[in-house]
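Batch manifest, entry 17 of 40.
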Amino acid sequence: MTNEKYLKELEGFNTSFYDVKSAVEDITPGSFEKLNYTSRVLAENLLRKCPSADLKDSLVQLIEKRTDKDFPWYPSRVVTHDILGLTALVDLAGLREAVEAGGGDPREVNPVVPTQLIVDHSLAVECGGFDPDAFQKNRDIEDRRNADRFHFINWTKEAFDNVDVIPPGNGIMHQINLEKMSPVVHNIDGIASPDTLVGTDSHTPHVDALGVLAIGVGGLEAENVMLGNPSYMRVPDIIGVNIIGTRAEGITATDIALAMTSFLRENNVISAYLEFFGVGMEYLNLGDRATIANMTPEYGASAGMFGIDEQTLDYLTLTGRESDQVKLVEAYAKANGLWATDLTKATYARELVFDLTAVTRSLAGPSKPHKLVPTSTLKAEGITDNTVEIGETDMPDGAILIAAITSCTNTSNPRNVIAAGLVAKKANELGLKRKPWVKSSLAPGSKIVEEYLKDANLLPELEKLGFGIVGFACTTCNGMSGALDPVIQKEVTDNDIYSTAVLSGNRNFDGRIHPYVKEAFL
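Output type: structure tokens
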């Protein structure tokens, strides 16, 4: 049962949409302008999917910010990687066997909701970026280790309806979702609606940067949604984060994201849905927003939403979305209250203020992603010591064993990647060399990174420094750093060397990066 009385034509398009403002105002006049972005997206979902008998009670939960009643949410997509996604599809294959044994047609067992599986969690960096053949060697090892798994995954693409598989060697699920898969606004059977999804990875909110409500869930919940069932929820704790000030010259999106993570942890946003807004937004392009949204699990929240604005449209155009789709996103967002400037009177359970002006160059560690360490305090905190003489062959205490440019957190941000290439260029000009005990790597989240690094003539600079491309996959921050050189590993253990890692990822918990790395800095 749907609620057709709220269907309205979207001017200029051969499509309709469910008018959230009309439905909300019919219940409580004057309440729509106070609804925040997340509540408007959830309200639209209820209008389109919720049985009419339950609609009013469910909308009241959002309008009055009440939490005494569950209401259904029907995500439009499921995005999964090859670990939990494979498990879910094995369950469906088992269900097909049971249906066939009972005399039914096994081909009728399929995901109801479109499901996209990206093979990105199987590659280990066995060969570092200083090996010119690292990419192919790592891919060959990945295929050999995962032959049976990959065979099954490839079978599911042909056997099941509503399953799309992106094979290994193409990138990280979150970056591909951001750059390619998300339409931001669907047009299905003549009805426009917001793109929403669940994903089997905690960093699924990466795509929240586009205004897409995307939540990381466990395999069973994703499987439940996959089969067309709703994900029942209560109104979450929705917190507004007002970004003010201007970023200083040289401050990267990583600096901002690490500072934001520390700030939000201090302000206890555990399990909350965050919405970022404010005058400081003009200093954050879509890549910067994605870097912040990606670290949602590190600051403990469930979502990190950004409204749709010109930056969103520019990014969609830049990443090759069709012009008609970009126009649809703009028209729909403005018609249904999802355009950023239409949310100036939105209200929240709490509101926090984050000042970009206060952000300095920093890193986080040695084992907590929210433990902010300004670079100006590295010596005072005992992280660096200028008196240590580092030779060419003698590994010092505190040696960096792993240095990785990795993770969708940063490789989805072209400004960050180009900056890394420029640093490599300057390092080469100054004659800096990789120490023999450092396992360096570059693992972009999509193939487009390789293209623009080549176009900028910066990939050779990174390769010269030892940061050649080792794969397009989730690697170091997923604990897939690969084995150390046996000689180096023996020296570490024989001499009880306190070893470290430095990476551009999002996780640095104890033992996360490598069992022989005792601390790691983001």
